């Protein structure tokens, strides 16, 4: 296993250990959270964990949860989410995030924001001094509104680009059937304001800025050849 995957595995496992029996658990999307889902399944199987239900944030999370034997529920059927575990593409010192590398940020924001405790699992490469430093900001948009939304984003100083599929002709399609526009901003000085401004553009469903949502960040790092987990 590569060093990066070892970090993801250990931090995913550490987050899974924080889930208690009887919990409603928000199941995030991405490579690190996939390990969390795997270890939750293993804890259920060996009897260390009982009576949990998962709320997936994507088709990917739903498929993995079923594969590892985690019962699923929906927001229509529960009145709480005890804990949500999810990855991030960037984390700043205030625990604000950019998410959406997997085009699942709309469902992720709904589930993560509802959770009593939201834990972010990342490797150290995702830590930045300022959001937008290394990762473009994803914006989910209704297909019919793509052109006017891109024009509005340009007026805000952003450089928008429609995300294209890999091994698929044409654009990426989200689980909601929409497009994703990836935006480069020279500087995101006020993430909270930008989050609101983007979401007020007609045709925008949601963007990848998660401001004031995160409770705990678990970071996987390699120190002296060993993987260690530290908490922000």
UniProtKB/TrEMBL annotation:
Pathway: Carbohydrate degradation; pentose phosphate pathway; D-ribose 5-phosphate from D-ribulose 5-phosphate (non-oxidative stage): step 1/1. The keyword Protein biosynthesis does not apply. It is an enzyme of class 5 (isomerase). GO terms for molecular function: ribose-5-phosphate isomerase activity. SUPFAM superfamilies: D-ribose-5-phosphate isomerase (RpiA), lid domain, NagB/RpiA/CoA transferase-like. InterPro entries: NagB/RpiA_transferase-like, Ribose5P_isomerase_typA_subgr, Ribose5P_isomerase_type_A. PANTHER family: RIBOSE-5-PHOSPHATE ISOMERASE. This is Ribose-5-phosphate isomerase A.
